[in-house]
Amino acid sequence: MTTATTTTTTPTPALRAERVLSSRSVERLVAGTATSDGAGVKLTRLLSQPLQRRLDPFLMLDAFGSDDPDDYIAGFPDHPHRGFETVTYMIAGRMKHRDSAGHEGLLENGGVQWMTAGRGVVHSEIPQQEEGVMEGFQLWLNLPGRDKMKAPWYRDFGAADLPRFTSGGVTAVVIAGESHGVAGAVTREATEPLVLDLHLEAGARFEQPLPPGHNAFVVVYRGAAAIGGRDVTPGKLALLSNDPAADGVVIEAKDGMRALLVAGRPLGEPIAQYGPFVMNTEEEIHQAVSDYRDGRLG
Ligand code: CO
């Protein structure tokens, strides 16, 4: 439900108060699995294959974070992707990116790299040490079958390029979608992804309307929150119910907290994954593997 009201304190003229009458509840808390990828980078996989159907259109979420450069310094050397998009959000540290489509960029604190692999890229993602700390997330967003073989696309957004608003002790960085009248850096028609980074002061409350059919989750990564009335501590994926009677989610900060809120419209298509390739059928996976092997992917 959306209520247009006048705003008094915000520099964002389009800001619109959005109210939630009935919050979704937390269906379950997922602890994630410690794993390593690339050249031995340690990470926590919060969303993996068993949840892909439940959280369609999202395929994967990794949280990486370490203050030991040895854990990540070699990063993710050249590797391929096909059939989906990767969204990398850097909270601390820097990551250098280079791909076979000729894109090169340095992702810095608070920045987002959005890459559409489409028919295929081969790229490397190499952390650049900054005071020995690196922390961030990588989210994989599926593409509808009709877009899986489209041309690759890539864009880096610095922290200053990302739309954001502040109201009532809440600062929201709108990475994708739209929140309280503020359009995000990226929009996608097929899946309407919403990706918000939320910073709440102690006692602040954030309401985000969500269509009941959209799958959604929250990852608190600082402080503690109550989501739909249930206490959530950092490091877990709080999977939100698709209760048809709920019109969104209400997040309340128990103390100063930060969280990612992610939601999107499910594609409802078959998901065939083999490592970095996500297609609709096994046959398309075999094609991706042979295209990569024959150098036709990047
Ligand atoms: Co990659």
Describe this structure in words.
With 298 residues, this protein is mainly beta. It has one domain (20-266): Jelly Rolls (Sandwich). 4% of the residues lie in helices and 48% in strands. It contains one helix and 26 strands. Residues 1-10 have low confidence and may be disordered. The structure holds cobalt (II) ion. Cobalt (II) ion (CO) is lined by residues 76, 79, 81, 86, 123, 125.
What value does the Rg take, in angstroms? 19 Å
User: Could you give me the name of the CATH homologous superfamily?
Assistant: Jelly Rolls
Number of helices: 1
Largest sheet strand order: 1-22-19-24-17-14-13
* N-to-C order of helices and strands: EEEEEEEEEEEEEEEEEEEEEEEEEEH
Shape: globular
Q: What is the architecture at the second tier of CATH?
A: Sandwich
Number of strands: 26
Oligomer: single chain
Please report the distance between the alpha carbons of the first and last residues.
44 Å
Quick structural gist:
The chain has one helix at 282-293, and strands at residues 26-30, 33-37, 41-47, 58-66, 76-81, 84-92, 94-99, 104-107, 112-116, 121-128, 134-142, 153-157, 164-167, 170-176, 178-179, 182-183, 194-200, 205-209, 215-222, 225-227, 230-232, 237-240, 248-253, 257-264, 272-274, 277-279. By secondary structure, the protein is mainly beta.
